[in-house]
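The following record pairs a protein chain with its ligand, N-carbamoyl-L-aspartate.
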Amino acid sequence: MSKAALLNQVAWDDFSAMSGSEKAPYFLKPGEQKSYHALLAQQFSRPMLEELCSLATCVRRIAKTHEGSRFLQSQLFDKRAMLYFSQPSTRTYLSFYSACQIIGLQTINVRDSKTSSEVKGESPEDTVRTFSSYTDLIIMRHPAGGFAERIAWMLSNTSRPVPVINAGSGKDQHPTQALLDIYTLDRSFEKTGGIDGKSVVFVGDLKRGRTVRSLAWLLTKYESIKMYFVAPPELQIGEDILAQLDAAGVPYELSGDFEKVIPEADAIYMTRIQDEWDVDNESSAIDTEAYHFKKEHLALLKKTGVIMHPLPRRKEIDPAVDSDPRAMYWRQVRNGMWIRSALILSIFGCDQAVRDFYEGSLS
Ligand code: NCD
């Protein structure tokens, strides 16, 4: 039998030098294909993705009734979650906050490091260790890539290890956004054979968009996927992602011609310019007009195609597109709440109880 991968039994330097796939087993419950932490897209296998999507659907349907809501809220009433967001956030924060309310988990939050003792010179590690003393789960967004992993590792060496969920780390990863994107694709293609065999077109700032990086990885878990990366040359997708796609045998094309690629798409994933990472306002010189989805583009898109965006948007999608049934970005927002509820329930081992309640409600 292979040895369980335990975070408290590996030195930080050895751990941080590992690839995402090598780190993945350390974030799972020992001996199970279920997440304990949720830190990297690489930790989710296809069966895990399918389970989370089906659990999210159970939660969504159960929550429709008064009795169901009461049941969901009874699941984690004795647990507390820390929402630690030291980067701006509207949707991810509110989505996690709402998910916690749906499943009865109480929340406390710090949304600005200036209001915590970090301003008194406390290290971010000590600050988060303090959070873990009061709570049973830490959900965190941080500008430094890998910081959530560092926290999970650090807490695993304390007397109070708690699960950590990465709600966006630097330019690097946004695994729960990728989960909600997968759930949205899964629901969108329910009647057209599922996600397998689909072509997904990523558009915009692919170099610094963490949602694209996490979703591209999750899509490698599906059969016969093709990806298109459409961006100005300065903002094209990183070589590391392309190397992962090569290793996974996923075909892809890089393009600068958005209109030519639209008819190929089953899903178009628009993103905004991530200029908060500019060093010298350099992206203001890039003409991105050709990478916007305009109303006239609807005629080029397949009838069964979908348009997605992690939001917030600027001018990437004309608001006139919002009323088209293929526009999925507002549904993504809602799907995030369901899949995050499912993820937290599964972390705390409540998934079977939820499935049993759902089955019972059908009979
Ligand atoms: C994204 C993010 O924070 O990476 N937003 C989100 O979580 N929905 C995308 C973005 O900010 O452009």
